[in-house]
User: What shape does this take?
Amino acid sequence: MHQTHSPHRSAPWLLATVPLIMVLMFVVPFTLLRNVDAWYGSLTFWAVATMVVIGINVVLSRRWED
Assistant: This one.
């Protein structure tokens, strides 16, 4: 029997990354970026992390139907 890839198989893995990214959004700026005095240090990290979370949400919700 031929198995097709189900979009729901990747959902738990992708959903688990969102809380991890959220924790990193608090931890990284106050640890790894602590000595970066420029405004773009944390802001760039937060912008990239936010875009990744938005991308994950797009992937997870693109096949939703009414």
User: Anything to note?
Assistant: The first helix runs from residue 11 to 31. The chain has a mean pLDDT of 84.
